[in-house]
Design goal:
Layout (H helix, E strand, L loop, with lengths): L1 H27 L5 H6 L5 H11 L5 H13 L13 H36 L3 H15 L3 H15 L23 H8 L2 H38 L2 H8 L4 H38 L5 H10 L3 H29 L7
Helix pairs in contact: 1-13, 5-6, 5-9, 5-11, 5-12, 6-9, 7-9, 7-11, 8-9, 9-11, 10-11, 11-12, 11-13, 12-13
Amino acid sequence: MTQYVFRRLLSAIPVLLGVTVITFVLSQLLPGDPARMAAGQFATAEQMEVVRERLGLDRPLWVQYLRYLSRLVRGDLGISFSSQQEVFNELKIFFPATLELTLVAMVLTVIVGVPLGVMTGSGKSPWVNSSVLFLSLVGVGLPVFWAGLVFQLIFAGRLDILPLDGRLGATVTPPPSVTNMYVLDALFAGQWTTLVDAIKHLILPAVTLAIGRIASVARITHAAMIDIMRRDYVRTAQAKGLPRRTVVDKHALKNALLPVVTTIGLQVGFLLGGSILVENIFSWGGIGTYAWIGIFRLDIPAIMGVTLSTTVMFMTINLLTDIAYAFLDPRIAYS
């Protein structure tokens, strides 16, 4: 297992290198002039030339890329063109907000999607199965931006039971920064009013982000359970007179988890991608918002930093998913 993990870490190097090349090339194709965005709308030609030289934009593209790689090897993600702050320090501020939102959406995906799939895949009620499958189809095709706006209209506008946007109310003081995740920081600090307010603000964006992923996980779990319930060892367990719950939980579900775990691991990428829209709809202030600002301002270091950080997170989740296979199925061994 250790050798396998080491090989996976080594194979991540060319992947990250390819991501930097693709992102750098695409960022150069964006319309506009980064020097103009950094210098300001009313900057003169001389001022723009000074800014272009200071940012290294006057160098050939291959020189700019090699300079970026040389800094990246030292752990330096560069300086943001727009804020003149280190991208790494800005990511430490924005990324925990996205991580908090993604984790809650992932938990909702698992605790709702898996039981729905198990219920429809092992149950005998055609009406329940058809209803859940129909709702899952609707959930898969539901655009997150439309769902977010509808949720805001209903729960924040009409019913007025949940806040419209933001991470905390205007009158609520943020907790002492430990993880930059307001729920955890408020819990650590014992600020219960802040904790409740942070949870209320988290509900709508997390549900909006999770609703499509819940549908995907439910459908995969449903298909896996149907396949497993037809196996001979499950029929043998049923013939022995074991309770149906025991057959489903101990014999069927455990063996159906491999494709489900794979799907859950892949959903992280969809959640990170969907967070850009959701965060802007709900003014969440996470890495999606940071990426949107970076693209709008042609901030190449910020765009590169966001892409690399999300790539590293996605690859880490995939590695953990592969490791989980060995625990779920002892027959799988990595040499």
